C-alpha cells in the first residue's frame, strides 16, 4: 500500500479509548476523558478514558479475583501456552490495524510499525508461551533424611507501566513472562500512546485469556500511574520510562506495601570507535542508522559517539553525509524512514537541548531545526554536534530525539573513562579490529549490553537491561521470569525406616 492507501485507512480507523477491565470495555468511572491528537499532523484521534485511582482499584480487584480463583494461575503451563500462542497469532492477524494505530499514536514510520513493532510483540508473547512449560523447578542437594523442593510460583497481581516510544514491544516484554507465569496484570500505557495497548487487551480476551487476567487502564502518570504504583494489593511493578519517574516508583513502593519494583530506565549509550577499525564508514553509517531510528526516541540510542581524534574528521563527514536520508517525512508513507516526535512537549524538549548544545559551545554539523512545521506535526531534523565535551548537557542528559554528540579522544584509557563517566549504563559499543582491545574495552565498559563492531543486534533470547541509573532486573530471555515469580522452598523430613 502507498501513502494514499494508508491515509485513507487512517481516516477510517475506529478509535476506542475506553479502558478494558474484567474483560469489558468501560468508560472511566467518573466519566472523564482526554483528547488524543496524532503527532503526524495534529489531527484529533479521539477521546481516551482518563483513569483515576478508582479505575485502577477496580482493575486491581478484578485482577486479584482472577488470580485467587485460579482461572489463569491454576491452569497447567501447557494450557496457558496454547492460549498465549493464540494471542500471538491474533496479534499477527491484526498486523495492519495495530501498525496503523501505533503510527497514528506516536508518529513512527508505518514501515517500521509493520516490520518491527507488531512482529516483535507477537514473537515475544509466543516465545514466553513456548518457554513456560520448559522451565523446571529444583530439588536441593540436602542430606538423605530431607527433601527440599524449590518451586517457582506466580507473584499475583503485576502492575505494568510502559512508555510511548515502543508501546507494543515494551508491553509485550512484560506481558509475556508475567502472563505465562500465571500472574494477573494491570497495564497502564503512556497517555501519549494508549491505543495499541487497549487493542491488545481485546485480542487477549478473544484468544481465551480469562476476564480479569489482563486489564488496561489509560490515564496520566501522576493519576493512574501513581495509583497503580501505590496500590496495596499490587505485588510488583514492571516499569519502563525515565530515571526521574523510576525514582518515584521506588518511593511509591516504600510508601505502600514494599512491592517489588523493576525499572528499565534511560540511557546515554557510548559508541566508541578506535583508529584500528578497518571500516570507518560502516561504523559511521551504523551509528547514524541506530541514532536516527525511531526519531532517536530509544533508551539505547548511541547518542554519545566517542571517536579517536585521528579519524574523527572523516567520521564526522560520513555521518553528516548520511543525515539527508533520514530527513523526516510523512509517517504514513511506506518510504519514510524517520517520522514525527511523539508530541509538542517532546518537540520543545528536543529543540531546547539543541539550543543548550549551541549555547555551551558544541559545533552544529547538520540539522538542528524543526521540520515540516506546516503540517501541524512534530518533526525535527537529524542533528549532529561535533566538538562536544562530556560535561555538556547534551552529553550528560537523555534527549530522546535525533541528536548525536561526537566526542573526540586520544587514548584507550581516556575512551573508557569518558564512556563510563555517565549516570547511565544501558548499552555501549566498541569498534576495533584488534580482538584484544575489543575484549579489553568491552569488559571495562559499565553497561548491560556491549556490542562489538555492530549495534542494535536484538533477539528475545538475550536479556535487556542496564547498570547504574539505567535500572535493575532484565527484560527478555528466561531471566525475565525472575521478575514475576517467587521462589518457594518446601522442606520435607523423611523419617528413617
Explain what you see:
By secondary structure, the chain is α/β, with parallel strands linked by helices. It is built from 15 helices and 23 strands. It has helices at 3-12, 53-68, 77-93, 95-106, 110-132, 167-180, 195-207, 221-230, 243-255, 280-292, 309-322, 344-359, 393-396, 412-420, 435-444; strands at 19-21, 24-26, 33-37, 44-49, 138-139, 146-154, 157-161, 184-188, 214-216, 236-240, 260-264, 270-273, 304-308, 363-366, 370-371, 379-380, 383-386, 403-409, 424-425, 427-431, 449-452, 467-468, 485-493. A seven-stranded mixed sheet has the order 14-17-18-13-12-20-21, sandwiched between helices. A hairpin with a 6-residue loop joins strand 5 (138-139) and strand 6. Helix 5 (110-132) packs parallel to helix 6. The longest helix is centred in the first third of the chain and has 23 residues, at 110-132. The mean pLDDT is 97.
